[in-house]
Design a protein that fits this description.
By secondary structure, the chain is of the alpha/beta class. It contains six helices and nine strands; from the N terminus they run E-H-E-E-E-E-E-H-H-E-H-E-H-E-H. The longest helix is centred in the C-terminal third of the chain and has 24 residues. This is DJ-1/PfpI domain-containing protein.
């Protein structure tokens, strides 16, 4: 993959209980495309991932607490709450505010697994097409439409992350003048092959 996200700063927002595969693959996908990532969580320190949603797995060092971060610091956000403890993110005011700020600024937000709950809490799900498990019925009740097919399926994460990279490149291109100023040359990250 070309470095179509070269120079972009992407926040990876996760908490204890995030799926190891989701965190590893999402970070790898955007970094391979040239982005810089920072792992954000509810607090500084470390978070522990889960393997298969149950078994303790890798420990990750958090780069920054979400309460100390601003949507202005990043060009895109990947929301990775995991399944078992997804409520940790969606019930935390600083997370809901942070995600809402990304949406308000028109910045791209990628959502994995139960991350859609945080979009519900932020009041930004209406009118959006979102990946989801069938068990999250409240999405339809808010006016969101549910994506179906390979890119949205949790069983097809590689295709999903390829789509995320393409969308981040496409949507970030629209933000280039505001994010980088007139003198910046964003051409290095504008097109994915």
């Amino acid at each position: 993959m070309t470095e179509c996200l070269q120079g972009l700063r992407i926040a990876l927002l996760a908490a204890d209980g995030v799926g190891q595969t989701e965190l590893d693959w999402s970070g790898d996908a955007v970094r391979r495309a040239g982005a810089q990532t920072q792992l954000l969580s509810l607090r500084a320190g470390q978070i522990e991932s889960l393997d298969e949603d149950l078994d303790p797995s890798r420990v990750y060092t958090v780069d920054r607490a979400v309460a100390d971060a601003s949507a202005d610091d990043y060009e895109a956000l990947l929301l990775l709450p995991g399944m078992v403890r997804s409520h940790q993110l969606s019930s935390h005011d600083s997370v809901v505010s942070f995600v809402g700020d990304f949406i308000s600024l028109g910045k791209p937000v990628g959502v994995v697994c139960h991350g859609t709950w945080t979009l519900l809490e932020a009041g930004v799900a209406r009118g959006r097409s979102l990946p989801s498990y069938l068990t999250i019925r409240s999405l339809r009740q808010t006016g969101a439409s549910i994506l179906d097919g390979e890119p949205a399926s949790p069983h097809a994460l590689r295709a999903f992350y390829s789509t995320i990279v393409e969308e981040f490149a496409r949507l970030s291109k629209q933000l280039a003048p505001a994010s980088y100023g007139e003198s910046a040359d964003p051409s290095a990250w504008l097109a994915c092959d």
